[in-house]
Amino acid sequence: MGRSSSKRKSVTARAVSGDDESARGRLLGAATHLFCKNGINATGIDAIIEEAGTAKTTLYKLFGSKTNLVHAVLESEGKKWREWFIASLEQGGGDAQTKLSRIFPALKQWFAEERFYGCPFINAVGEHDKDQKQFRSIAMRHKKVVLAHIEKLAAEMGVAEPQVLAHQLALLIDGAIVAAMVTGDPDVADTAALTASALLGPAKARKPKRTSPTPERLAAAAG
User: Fold this and answer.
1) Is 101 exposed, middle or buried (CB count within 10 Å of its CB: 0-12, 13-18, 19+)?
2) How far apart are CA 63 and CA 40, in angstroms?
3) How far apart are CA 81 and CA 87, in angstroms?
């Protein structure tokens, strides 16, 4: 009888856990959509729970506060976006320059999506007091991962200053995202791509040349 009771408790616990995961997913999905579409400050808790089909007590049980929910949305969206972005560059293989040249065609596809509302990190930081660091720190962690991958590819190209090229391309990415959000025109990615190609060509041309050691240098090294 004790074993039967333990089994029932275990099944109940798993059911509750499953319900919580389902509710968490619905709340994250609803909050992501509403925050991106309408803005964080303009979106109230009631709107989120109505779209998610959950109770307000469930939201507070799972996230504790609206601020924590915003953090969870940014972390979740950032992870999904980074995985998509890096996969878009790497898919199809090719050399580092080929991979970097895929940045803006990939962004153009994103810009053309019906639910493109810009970058959630740019939007979150832009909505709040510039002295608030809570969203800025999450945005910077996201940006560092993206920059690191671009810098890695720039280094594989053999450019003299891969970090500089990575920051130049990141500025173009941010500018294209904002321009696409403001204008609603995915073709702004094409203009950014032209500018990127003007950076990538000369950067590759500046690749340091390796010279074969002359017999005199080999002799001097041996001595």
Assistant:
1) middle
2) 16
3) 10
DSSP string, 111-167: HTSTT----HHHHHHHHS-TT--HHHHHHHHHHHHHHHHHHHHHHHHT-S-HHHHHH
Token pair listed for 80: 């999904």
Q: What is the mean pLDDT of each run of 10 residues along the chain (223 residues)?
A: 51 49 91 92 94 92 93 94 96 92 97 93 84 82 95 93 95 96 96 94 56 46 39
| Tokens 């950014």 found at | 192
Residue 159 in tokens = 């450019």
- Distance, CA of 45 to CA of 38 (rounded, Å): 13
Q: How many helices (H) and strands (E) does the chain have?
A: 11, 0
3-state secondary structure of 153: helix
pLDDT of residue 223: 39
Q: Phi, psi at residue 213, to the nearest 5°?
A: -65, 135
Conformation bin of residue 43: beta by default, left when phi > 0, alpha when psi is -120 to 50: beta
Q: How far apart are alpha carbons 74 and 212 in whole angstroms? A: 51
SS3 category, 186: coil
Q: Which residue has the tokens 């173009």?
A: 172
As a whole number of Å, the end-to-end CA separation of the chain is: 87
Residue 210 DSSP code = P
Q: How far apart are CA 58 and CA 25, in angstroms?
A: 12
Asked if residues 127 and 196 have their Cβ atoms less than 8 Å apart, the reply is: no
Residue 157's Cβ-side half-sphere holds a number of Cα atoms within 13 Å equal to 27
Q: Which residue has the tokens 């340091």?
A: 208
